[in-house]
Automatic annotation (TrEMBL):
Protein's cellular compartments: Cell membrane
Keyword line: Bacterial flagellum biogenesis, Bacterial flagellum protein export, Cell membrane, Cell projection, Cilium, Flagellum, Membrane, Protein transport, Transmembrane, Transmembrane helix, Transport
One record GO biological process: protein secretion
Topology with respect to the bilayer: Multi-pass membrane protein
Family: Belongs to the type III secretion exporter family.
Lineage: superkingdom: Bacteria
Protein function: Required for formation of the rod structure in the basal body of the flagellar apparatus. Together with FliI and FliH, may constitute the export apparatus of flagellin.
GO annotations of cellular component type: plasma membrane
UniProt region (Disordered), positions on chain: 13-35
Compositional bias ranges of the Basic and acidic residues kind: 15-27
Organism: Natribacillus halophilus
Regions that span the bilayer: 42-61, 98-126, 158-177, 197-220
Name of the protein described by the UniProt record: Flagellar biosynthetic protein FlhB
Keyword Transmembrane: yes
Length: 370
């Protein structure tokens, strides 16, 4: 059986051991399914703590209710005729009064349950976790869970908690043994106050003890959850491929992005003062405005086909084109689009711009007052 499970695990992991931490997508997917690191012991301890703290401060209300109820039963209800109508009326009356007393306690338990879950897993709505599945009612799987190592561990934990809570309760009762032995000699309400006080103390002490015991369980649940959602290297690679999409679609997307980038760059070429070429392999478009720029700026550059397109656009828009192989190659390798000309190329670029500005077709536009 163990060998078969190992082989199944090996096959499901694609022949690789699950050694990689879960990716953010895997964590999100498992969270949507309701698979999160959560300790039920934390929920139980916090619910008990909230409820017993409320009972500790709220004991006078149910105590007075029980006192009034017994008084009313012995005074008003004892002589009542035993009919269906009277029994139903009495039942509905008592049900309403009991509900009024118990609603605050039930609300405290509800709030504690919500808070304990939010502390552990945050805000989570996972309807997939409550979908009916045949595997959940499979008797074979149920038997496996009953006799699994986890079930044995939970059994020992439950026994340990029962023993410790029993010791706490016994210790508190032992401290108040004299008062408890005198209960028959005190007033009913005084006796009720003592019992409710001891019950609250036992409940709060037990809840605090269970909360302390729940901390290592929560740590273990987080460790076990991380272990369960581990991935093999193949699963990580497959997930990346799936997220990135089909290679053909990726290629088309890249081509589209390059085309759009080229279109934007070609729109900048008409603004250039000069296009420096290699003459066929490289093209660099430069623009300089002394009022707003500290140095000439590269507004477009390209190689091969892109360089050819730049020269064509420059020709159509009457932008001067100047061949300078060394300068074109240096500018292409030394700066990106939007960068200023490197300092070591200032002199060469200044000579090119000075030459361009003296051209008959450029000088009148550049210096209209001359």
């Amino acid at each position: 059986m163990g060998l078969r499970m190992d082989l199944q695990y090996f096959a499901e992991s694609g022949g690789q051991e699950k050694t990689e931490k879960a990716t953010p997508k895997k964590r999100q997917d498992t969270r949507k399914k309701g698979q999160v690191a959560k300790s039920n012991d934390v929920n139980t301890a916090l619910i008990l703590l909230f409820v017993f703290i409320l009972l500790f401060a709220y004991a006078a209300v149910p105590g007075q209710f029980l006192h009034d109820l017994f008084m009313e039963i012995y005074i008003n209800y004892v002589g009542m005729a035993f009919t269906i109508e009277n029994v139903m009326a009495l039942f509905l009356d008592l049900l309403f009064e009991i509900a009024v007393v118990l609603v605050p306690i039930m609300l405290a338990a509800l709030i504690a349950g919500v808070v304990s879950n939010m502390v552990q897993v945050g805000v989570l709505f996972a309807p997939e976790a409550i979908k009916p599945k045949l595997s959940k009612i499979n008797p074979i799987n149920g038997i496996k869970r009953i006799f699994s190592a986890r079930a044995i561990v939970e059994l020992f934990k439950a026994i340990l908690k029962i023993i410790l809570v029993g010791l706490v309760a016994f210790g508190i009762l032992w401290l108040y043994a004299d008062e408890l032995l005198r209960l028959a000699l005190v007033d009913v309400m005084d006796g009720f106050h003592l019992v409710s006080y001891l019950t609250g103390m036992i409940g709060i002490a037990s809840a605090l003890l269970l909360l302390i015991l729940a901390v290592p369980d929560y740590v273990y649940q987080r460790y076990d959850h991380e272990k369960q959602i581990r991935m093999s290297k193949k699963e990580v690679k497959d997930e990346h491929k799936k997220m990135e999409g089909d290679p053909l679609i990726k290629s088309k997307r890249r081509d589209r992005a390059k085309e759009m980038a080229m279109q934007r760059m070609m729109q900048e070429v008409p603004k250039a003062d000069v296009v420096i070429t290699n003459p066929t392999h490289y093209a660099i478009a430069l623009h300089y405005d002394g009022d707003v720029m500290a140095a000439p700026t590269i507004i477009a550059k390209g190689a091969d086909y892109t360089a050819l397109r730049m020269r064509q656009v420059a020709e159509l828009n009457a932008v001067p084109t100047l061949e300078n192989q060394a300068l074109a190659r240096s500018l292409y390798d030394g700066a990106d689009i939007g960068d200023e000309v490197p300092e070591d190329l200032f002199r060469a670029v200044a000579e090119v711009l000075a030459y361009v500005y003296r051209l008959p077709s450029i000088a009148p536009k550049r210096y209209p007052e001359v």
